[in-house]
Amino acid sequence: MAIVQVTIVPLGTGSTSVSDYVASVERVLSEAPESIKHQLTPMSTIIEGELDDILAVIRRMHEVPFREGAKRVSTSITIDDRRDKVGTMAQKMDSVAEKLKDQHERT
C-alpha cells in the first residue's frame, strides 16, 4: 500500500486563481474506478492505495488542466511506499497523535 502526495499546478492560464482547476481534478479523483482513498488539503491531495492504481489516476488528473485550457502543467508527486507493513493515512495520523499524547503526559 502506498500513500502519495500530488500537487497539480496549471500554468499559462491568465489568472492566479486555480480553484476551478482543483475542483475539476478532484472530480476525476472522486470518480476514479480504482480502489483508492484520498484527502484534499489546502496545498495538495493525499491518495492511498496500490501504487499502480494511484499512478494511473494521477495520469488522468494531470490531463485535466490541459483540457480546460492550461498551456502548461506542473505535477509534483511524493511517494511513501512502505513494504514491511501496511501503512494508511489514518494509521500515520494516529501514530503522531499517540506520540503527542505521550509527550503531553510526560510534561
Quick gist of this model?
The protein is built from three helices and four strands, in the order βαββαβα. The chain has helices at 19-30, 51-67, 89-106, and strands at residues 2-11, 36-40, 45-49, 72-81. The mean pLDDT is 93.
Name of the CATH architecture: 2-Layer Sandwich
| Percent of residues in β-strands | 25-35%
The percentage helix is 40-55%
For the residues shown, what is the average pLDDT?
Answer: 93
Family: Belongs to the UPF0045 family.
Organism: Cohnella nanjingensis
Protein name: MTH1187 family thiamine-binding protein
Structure in words:
- With 107 residues, the chain is an alpha+beta fold.
- It has one domain: 2-Layer Sandwich (Alpha-Beta Plaits), CATH 3.30.70.
- It has helices spanning 19-30, 51-67, 89-106; strands at residues 2-11, 36-40, 45-49, 72-81.
- Strands 2-3-1-4 form a 4-stranded antiparallel β-sheet, with helices on one face.
- The chain is globular and about 55 Å long.
- The termini are far apart.
- The model has no long low-confidence stretch (mean pLDDT 93).
